[in-house]
Amino acid sequence: MHRGRASDDPELTARLVALAEEVGLDTLAHLWATRPARSLPGALWRLYVLRDWVRRDPAGASREYAAGIRYAAVNHVVAGPADPPGPEELRTLLDAVLRGVFEGDLAVALERAAAFARVVSAGRAAESEGEAAATQAADLLATAEDLTASARAWRQGALA
Fold first, then answer.
1. Is 160 within a domain?
2. CB 69 within 8 A of CB 123
3. Helix, strand, or coil here: 62?
4. For the chain, does the N or the C end have fewer beta carbons within 10 angstroms?
């Protein structure tokens, strides 16, 4: 990540955004998934997992996101997708969040991802039935909290 942030090469940034496609999400899981959620590797893992989910299920992501907007309107504004937030707009949003990790303020990128996760969590909870859906919504909300805490830690110089 530090190499990507130190570079102003758009090709390098594009490769880092698409890292999961290049090396595989399993490889990233091996490197980062067991790290604490509120660490730099843990936050990056969560960003790539969110991006991967949106790429694998853009229609489902769009449906759940749209359902969550009315319950998490402020988070929708913070996340910042184009309106209406369809499948392609959500793909673009997650790519922009990851680009922000390398080109912009990391804390802002983490906060945007957290806001996205909150909206989807609200939509999943509202639109889905059953214990599994409720658990998934709660897990996504916990991910949002971890990303928010990681943003605070980055601002304090304590995200390692």
1. no
2. yes
3. helix
4. C
Q: Which two tokens stand for residue 41?
A: 């590797």
Asked whether residue 117 is domain-assigned, the answer is yes
Q: Mind listing the pLDDT tens digit for each residue in 88-139?
A: 999 999 999 888 887 888 899 999 999 999 999 999 999 988 999 999 999 9
- Residue 112 falls within a domain, yes or no? yes
* C-alpha distances in Å from residue 15, one per residue of 54, 86, 103, 146: 18, 24, 13, 25
Chain segment 39-82, per-residue pLDDT in tens: 999 999 999 899 999 999 999 999 999 999 999 999 999 999 98
End-to-end CA distance of the chain: 12
Show the domain range for 8: 2-155
